[in-house]
Design brief:
It comes from Streptacidiphilus alkalitolerans. The protein is α+β, with helices and mostly antiparallel strands and 286 residues long. It contains 9 helices and 12 strands. A hairpin with a 2-residue loop joins strand 10 and strand 11. It is globular.
């Protein structure tokens, strides 16, 4: 199998990206907000609480993401996802990762704890003619299991969690009326102090504790969150920025087509699939 190390780099970077995105938009914070203008803040908190409740009614959606990640660069992705259980179908592009394979983009599918990546015809030349790489997180030891658990608990980029994260900030405010991709929206913004969040959520569930721990590991002390909400109290766009010990993270997600139909993932044929755990083992011994 040729250039196995390059293929492992792509897969490992994808794992790191998944960890960052699940951390950045996955807190299950309280629906409280405080500030000097008590009446105004209360109305904003009410609006955010309504958005959280409305979004929670839906289990599937389409989304477009642009992410700037340290050491990886700019990643763009688009597709659809559903939660409870987690299922995702995305097309991802990143020059630094895909250039190693000679591919313009990578198709990704995920169901539960298993991810599949189609590396294209160029990638197939390095996978003995096989187009798909299978990544079963359960086979990647404790770290893989922890990442799988975090993604399934947080539902990846579940927008209702981003709303709860924003609502937890003490300085949440209404920025104004803005049009996003042709949709009239109300823009809200706030900055989340991760240490204060950890203190006020000392008795939080394991999902929130996991997110707080990840933020600590990344050296993330604060996170700025902006959200644009439409007339149905559903999020149209979420923008999150933070500084970490690895560098700055900047993530923008746009949502549409909210529904309740699960995303169905059909695994690719085993004859056209290579297992990442086996390939990683071979790369270490080569």
């Amino acid at each position: 199998m040729r250039n196995a190390r390059a293929l492992c780099l792509v897969a490992t970077a994808t794992l790191g990206l998944a960890a960052l995105t699940s951390c950045s938009a996955a807190s299950k914070a309280t629906d409280k907000a405080t500030g000097s203008a008590k009446g105004a803040v209360a109305s904003v908190a009410d609006a955010m609480s309504l958005t959280s409740k409305q979004t929670a009614k839906y289990t599937s959606m389409k989304m477009k993401m642009t992410e700037v990640v340290p050491k990886v660069g700019t990643i763009t992705a688009s597709g659809e996802m559903s939660r409870d259980p987690l299922a995702m179908r995305m097309t991802m592009s990143n020059p630094q990762l895909t250039s190693a394979l000679g591919a313009a983009s990578i198709q990704m599918m995920m169901s539960g704890s298993t991810m599949y990546m189609n590396l294209g015809s160029s990638g197939a030349k390095q996978l003995d003619g096989k187009h798909w790489m299978k990544m079963d997180f359960a086979s990647l030891g404790a770290q893989g299991k922890a990442l799988s658990d975090a993604m399934n608990k947080s539902n990846g980029q579940d927008p209702s969690d981003a709303v709860k994260l924003l609502t937890s900030s003490g300085d949440i405010k209404k920025v104004g009326q803005e049009t996003v991709d042709g949709v009239p929206t109300t823009h809200y913004a706030g900055t989340v102090d991760m240490k204060k969040l950890a203190d006020q959520e000392a008795g939080a569930d394991s999902g929130l504790k996991n997110i707080i721990d990840q933020a600590g590991q990344l050296g993330m002390s604060t996170e700025k969150v902006d959200i644009w909400v439409d007339s149905r109290s559903l999020p149209v766009k979420v923008h999150e920025t933070a500084s970490t010990t690895q560098g700055n993270v900047d993530i923008t997600v746009e949502y549409s087509d909210f529904g309740t139909t699960p995303v169905k993932i059909t695994p690719p044929p085993a004859s056209d699939t290579v297992d990442f755990a086996t390939m990683l083992k071979d790369a270490k011994t080569s």
